[in-house]
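User: My instructor asked us to take a sequence, write out its structure as tokens, and then describe one feature of it. I'm not sure where to start. Here is the sequence I was given:
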Amino acid sequence: TLFLIIDREAERETIITPSYEAPLEGPQAPPASLSAPPIMPPPGPPATPALKQRPEKPQLTGGTFLILIIAVAIIVAISAGSVSLFTSKEITHIPQDTNAKVESALAAFPGVRFTFNEPSGRLFILGHVLTAAQKNELLYNLRTLPFVTSVEDNVIVDQSVWEETNAILGHNPAWSGVSVMAPSPGRFVVSGYLKTAGQLESLQDYLLINFPYPDRLDNQVIVEEILLAQINAQIRTGGFSGVTPQIVNGEIALTGAIGRGEVERFDALITSIQGLRGVRAVRNLVAVLSEEKSFIDLTGRYTVQGFTKKGDLLLNVLIEGQILARGDVFKGFRLDQILPTAVILEKDGIKYKINYGEIQRGC
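Assistant: Let's start with the prediction itself. The structure tokens for your sequence are:
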């Protein structure tokens, strides 16, 4: 900005140039005679030439001078702007891998994805985290990035989802043993125990309609009646007809009795039951009896009417009018042993007995 200051009250000097007078035209007097010397007048003060004063220029008023100053300042500003506008200067750009820095900030949150617009500095994030504390940590990490100007947050807190769902499931007594959890971000699991398959079907229909992320929900609910049927099938296959299973919230209780010679096979059965999906523990309450006491007693259904022997060796028995030897079949039962006090039968791996001690003593 240029300021021009003029003192209008200061004295000024005016320089005047004498005017030039041309010689007069016309006849001139003849020169005087050379013989007579001219008579010089007495010296006097020199004549002062007449000075012609120039007209003074009009002086500038305050308003006019101010307008002049403003006009000069505008011209100077326009000139400076034009120079700076058309002046090129090389800008040094320092490249930085912004995506790598964002990935580093989100490294602890594998369930979160992002899209970053580098020209605008806008970051878009979406996905899942387990808890609200993890989301706060995530946002704090992003705020430390200087190139991120704004964050569009679409991250879901899984804890809020499962807590709301469990509160609804708890209102139904049939579903009280079922709950929803998230073992990892974005992956939900519904687990627990239901009594019947019908209850499971109702639960699946409800979650399919009302759970916000049914495609991310893994159903691991155990139906007790189905699990109990699997355990009973293994017990029958092992020949332990005197054993009865019970189930309460995944804990299996085995009651009944087995023979002393069946202990090893029964231990193998318990190991197999523990490997079934949904079994949390097995309680063995089965009593171990002597071999004869562990057989199913059929004495009330069938009667041994007699027997034959050679010396101390029992050869045949008479049951319901049918003479049988070892290996013969009677009403679907195979004759396994003829003991001095009972006949041992076997069917589908299960052993039965028919006592006849009183007949022997009467012979």
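For the description part of your assignment, you could build on this observation: The chain has a mean pLDDT of 81. Try explaining in your own words what that tells you about the chain.
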